[in-house]
Amino acid sequence: MKINKVTAPGLIAVFSLFFSIISFGQGQQGISIDKIIARVDNHYILNSELEEMYNQYKAEGRAAPEKCQLLESLIINKMLLAKAEIDSVVVEDKEVDGELDAKMGYMVQRFGSEKNIVEAYGKSIENLKSELRTQVKEQKIVEKMQRTISGNVKITPSEVRKFFNSIPKDSLPYIPSEVEIGHIVKLGTVTREQKDKLRQQLLELKQRAEKGEDFATLAQIYSEDLGSAKNGGDLNFAKRGAMVPEFEGAALALKPGEMSDVIESQFGFHLIKLIETRGAEYHARHILLRPDYNKGTDMTSAIRALDSLRNLIEINTLKFAKAALDNSEDKETAESGGLIMDRNTGIARLTLDASMDPALYFAIDTMKVGDLSKPVAYRTEDGRSAMRIIWYKSKSEPHTANLRDDYEKLSQIVLSNKRNNALEEWFKKAQGDVFISIEPEYKDCKVLGLEALANDI
């Protein structure tokens, strides 16, 4: 049966819980025996999904919401997916792949290496990426649905002023100190010694293969591309343009059965063996060795480049924003002129408290507003060693919220409220288009404002 009435208040607050978690799973710990607990059209919610969300909060030391709230957020998520299918809303594979690469980089940073990830989860990188890709694709579709529903919502200054004036004077929030901070990042370069060592290791493996050892077996033992290593380095058929140019150029220059020289790419050093070509596709194996970015990284050129930029900025020959845009290797902040955004608000103002990145907090503790630091060590989100210069652009004093100093923050609240209203209206209309069924054990939850239903799960 269909649920015919949904009470909208509170839906968006609950829905936001789903996206407050970057979920990579917790291995096999804390997951109960799986079963379906809810269904939205052809999308099912498993008990493990609910438990995983709940355990993620606990693992991060945060107060976990009630499971009823988490279940509601999962159901709302599935509603958006179901409606996306009805409305033919899709996302491009390259958009999913970009997000997936970023999340895998985060995991490598968190665990130290792909090998450690495999040991922690008991799954190959290939399987983890496959599972995570599904999550990322669903999240991207849901985000696109949200933009479709509320993307055209606009606000005016008069609406912001009206909202501010509606807040009782004795209820105005206290705003702590906030800072604007920018940085310019330059990555370290792998030392010649380390590069030569990796090349030599691959040349020795090539010689062993030429003498009769099985390339696939060598890949299983030595390759650091753990996703393909378990399959003997097999990358399956790839369309032209799918691989980085260095790899593809070397692979296509080979005849079936031939091995390449050692090839360097952004991922490391490769030894490639071509299996076959088929039209515009080619099938290859490879052995990958990666540089260790925690050691053997030369910071000389990074420091020299940053010192040069710092001098030009200080004598006012070059503006910091322009220097960051053209030179910073942190592409996310480079596009905003080097300014570091608050991930929750999307605004280039960071609250000066314990929630701030400790490295930034202690760096600006010895700086004055307007100062530009000397090059300091930095570790990127994907775990690479780098250097950066930090610009302490501004600092606001703690104060009671006012329209002049906090207009941007207030406008974000008004815009969010207006978008939430649009989403709530959408939910009222869309809930009749999808089938929703919930296990009776959650009858006390009154998910979406209704008693739990148990029909044909």
TrEMBL record:
InterPro entries: OMP_Chaperone_SurA (IPR050280), PPIase_dom_sf (IPR046357), PPIase_PpiC (IPR000297), Trigger_fact/SurA_dom_sf (IPR027304). It comes from the Bacteria. It is an enzyme of class 5 (isomerase). Coiled coil: none annotated. The keyword Isomerase applies. GO terms for molecular function: peptidyl-prolyl cis-trans isomerase activity. PROSITE patterns: PPIC_PPIASE_2. This is Peptidylprolyl isomerase. It comes from Dyadobacter chenwenxiniae.
